Amino acid sequence: MNNRRRMTGVVTSNKMTKTVVVEISRKFRHPLYRKVVHSSKRVKAHDEIGCQIGDHVQIVESRPLSRDKHWVVENVVKREIRTADTGVADLNVGVVEETEATEQPKTEVSDDSA
Questions:
Q1: Which of 2, 25, 71, 103 holds its CA 20 to 30 A away from the CA of 43?
Q2: Domain ranges across the chain
């Protein structure tokens, strides 16, 4: 086994070609104040697997692949199950149908006395 650093994080962006942004979160106790501190950093990693946003991945350190990219996605620890998002257009259609159904038909009062 090689001595490369391995870290686990969550994919936060996959908009670039063969590159994902992985957020690595960690908790540690402050040495003086003894409070638990949350810290996170975001790194760019080379992605041949095709990760999606929300996937938990294991990344391994590699030679520099570009100016910012020094990590490679080794494997997907846990896939994020995403359902199809309902768009704003679908939500607006439901609102229009509800308002049409709740409106009462207006009856005109005729003035025959004149």
A1: 2
A2: 6-82
CA distances to 51, 55, 69, 104, 110 from 107, rounded to whole Å, are 59, 58, 70, 9, 9
Which residues face 24 on adjacent strands? 41
- Interior angle at CA 68, CA 16 and CA 4, nearest 5: 105
CATH top class, domain 6-82: mainly beta
- Output DSSP code: residue 92: H
Residue whose structure tokens are 């994919």: 11
Give CA–CA dist 45/86, Å, rounded: 30
With vertex at residue 79, the alpha carbon angle to CA 88 and CA 39, rounded to the nearest 5 degrees, is 90
Looking at residue 44, its amino acid is K
Map residue 44 onto helix, strand or coil: strand
Q: CA dist 19 to 6, 30, 110, Å?
A: 17, 33, 71
pTM above 0.70, yes or no: no
Count of residues in the chain:
114
The span from the CA of 17 to the CA of 40, in Å, is 24
